[in-house]
């Protein structure tokens, strides 16, 4: 008598809560909770926190965090139950199933989780998604974005004073690109203040603005710069 073997999609690892959740309407997942989480991660267009994912999948945060860790390790090549691959793939990969990282990875960036293509394939991927597009920011936009990132929240007038040019059109461009956003108004002047967005953090590959490199070690002789800007405040 032969025993029935689990299919390639079965996840039977130890202490893996793969079927502990349900759909918001009460039905069961069409597969496992792990597969449902993976499906969501494939379609979200911005990082989602473990709490947000848990709420949408009707799972506990602890379960989602464990599943995220499992997926992250699997995408990095640390997996025991490797999926079934076709003959063409097995002919190319010679170092064993599960030993080669995927072309994508699961990152925790800007306060949430999302699937990204791996950095080492940036040139290859860029050839597909950037061809024919003018996605790069101008030098003026980059300089304005840098001032806002390091001085936020900051008004357009103050950015203009720092750069020495009018930045109204550049600020509109950065806002349209989703890199900066309205952060309220200055209590004294009533001017609109701007700050960077979570999309900016995502594009920079950092979790918060506190992770941006410090400028002071590269700009000697600028003691009292805060007082200078305060004096020039408009």
- Quickly give the structural class: alpha+beta
- CATH-assigned fold name of the largest domain: Arc Repressor Mutant, subunit A
Overall shape: elongated
| Amount of helix | 25-40%
How much of the sequence lies in strands comes to 5-15%
- What radius of gyration results from the CA coordinates? 24 Å
Query: Oligomeric status of the shown chains?
Result: single chain
Rounded mean pLDDT is 76
Low-confidence stretches: 1-20, 80-97, 221-225
Distance between the termini: 85 Å
Sketch the topology as an H/E string, one letter per element: HHHHEEHHEHHEEHH
In short:
The longest helix is centred in the first third of the chain and has 15 residues, at 61-75. The chain has helices at residues 33-43, 50-57, 61-75, 87-92, 122-129, 139-151, 156-163, 168-176, 198-204, 225-231, and strands at 104-109, 112-117, 154-155, 180-185, 192-196.
Looking at this protein, list some descriptive labels.
three-stranded antiparallel beta sheet; two-stranded antiparallel sheet; 39% helix; 2 domains; Arc Repressor Mutant, subunit A; alpha+beta; disordered N terminus; 234 residues
Write the layout of secondary structure elements.
Elements: H1 33-43, H2 50-57, H3 61-75, H4 87-92, E1 104-109, E2 112-117, H5 122-129, H6 139-151, E3 154-155, H7 156-163, H8 168-176, E4 180-185, E5 192-196, H9 198-204, H10 225-231
Helix pairs in contact: 1-3, 2-3, 6-8
């Amino acid at each position: 008598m032969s025993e029935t073997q689990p299919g390639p999609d079965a996840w039977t690892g130890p202490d893996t809560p793969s079927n502990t959740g349900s759909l918001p309407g009460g039905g069961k997942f069409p597969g496992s909770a792990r597969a449902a989480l993976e499906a969501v991660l494939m379609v979200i267009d911005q990082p989602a926190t473990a709490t947000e994912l848990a709420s949408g999948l009707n799972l506990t945060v602890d379960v989602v965090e464990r599943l995220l860790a499992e997926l992250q390790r699997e995408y990095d090549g640390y997996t025991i139950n490797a999926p079934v691959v076709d003959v063409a793939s097995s002919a190319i990969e010679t170092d064993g199933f599960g030993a080669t990282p995927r072309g994508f990875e699961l990152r925790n960036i800007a306060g949430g989780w999302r699937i990204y293509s791996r950095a080492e394939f940036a040139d290859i991927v860029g050839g597909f998604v950037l061809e024919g597009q003018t996605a790069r920011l101008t030098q003026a936009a980059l300089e304005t974005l840098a001032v806002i990132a390091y001085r936020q929240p900051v008004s357009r007038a103050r950015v203009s004073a720092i750069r020495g040019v009018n930045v109204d059109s550049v600020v509109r461009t950065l806002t349209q690109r989703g890199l900066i956003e309205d952060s309220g108004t200055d209590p004294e002047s009533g001017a609109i203040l701007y700050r960077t967005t979570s999309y900016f953090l995502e594009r920079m590959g950092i979790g918060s603005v506190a992770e941006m490199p410090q400028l002071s070690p590269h700009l000697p002789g600028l003691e009292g710069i805060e007082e200078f800007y305060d004096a020039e405040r408009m």
